[in-house]
């Protein structure tokens, strides 16, 4: 599955992407904000990531700039009980450019097309930038803060939980009557 937004191309990870993925994520300031990526992030982790099968209802994507194909990160949705969970990372050189928000919007469009009704997400409390991204995407804070394991940190850290109900929402650009 592919998706084109204004500035980005979302596409499946390919085996040959492992080195670019490694180059973007093998940065402690990136990995420490993720729940599932280990630190240190090694070449075999990137090779395993690109080799994993992608379930059709839970896609994950490489995020590349549409104008020059530069890889800026990854985004996707994973099963989380009876709902889906949004996850993303953006390589540090691309922080602050709105890529996480744009990629997140694109994945939410895809999630809606796939029939997902509710998407959850969280961010570690010491990463408020991710909370700003989630709020821009329309997520609401659930009021729940809990300990969440972070492989990159090697332990637990407090994370704020968010949710977004897709059911009944209007498509982008449409207004409710």
UniProtKB/TrEMBL annotation:
<dbReference type="InterPro" id="IPR051531">
    <property type="entry name" value="N-acetyltransferase"/>
</dbReference>
<keyword id="KW-0808">Transferase</keyword>
<protein>
    <submittedName>
        <fullName>GNAT family N-acetyltransferase</fullName>
    </submittedName>
</protein>
<feature type="domain" description="N-acetyltransferase">
    <location>
        <begin position="8"/>
        <end position="167"/>
    </location>
</feature>
<dbReference type="InterPro" id="IPR000182">
    <property type="entry name" value="GNAT_dom"/>
</dbReference>
<keyword id="KW-0012">Acyltransferase</keyword>
<comment type="similarity">
    <text>Belongs to the acetyltransferase family. RimJ subfamily.</text>
</comment>
<dbReference type="InterPro" id="IPR016181">
    <property type="entry name" value="Acyl_CoA_acyltransferase"/>
</dbReference>
<dbReference type="Pfam" id="PF13302">
    <property type="entry name" value="Acetyltransf_3"/>
</dbReference>
């Amino acid at each position: 599955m592919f998706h084109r937004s204004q500035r980005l191309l979302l596409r499946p990870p390919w085996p040959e992407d492992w080195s670019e993925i490694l180059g973007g994520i093998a940065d402690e300031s990136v990995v420490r904000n993720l729940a599932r990526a280990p630190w240190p992030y090694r070449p075999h982790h990137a090779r395993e990531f690109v080799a994993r099968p992608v379930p059709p209802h839970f896609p994950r994507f490489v995020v590349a700039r549409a104008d020059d194909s530069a890889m800026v990160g990854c985004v996707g949705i994973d099963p989380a009980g009876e709902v889906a969970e949004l996850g993303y990372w953006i390589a540090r050189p691309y922080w602050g450019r709105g890529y996480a928000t744009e990629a997140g919007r694109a994945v939410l469009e895809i999630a809606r097309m796939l029939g997902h009704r509710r998407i959850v997400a969280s961010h570690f409390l010491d990463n408020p930038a991710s909370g700003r991204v989630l709020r821009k995407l329309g997520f609401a804070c659930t009021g729940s803060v809990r300990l969440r394991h972070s492989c990159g940190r090697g332990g637990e850290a407090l994370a704020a939980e968010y949710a977004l109900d897709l059911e009944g929402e209007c498509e982008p650009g449409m207004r409710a009557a």
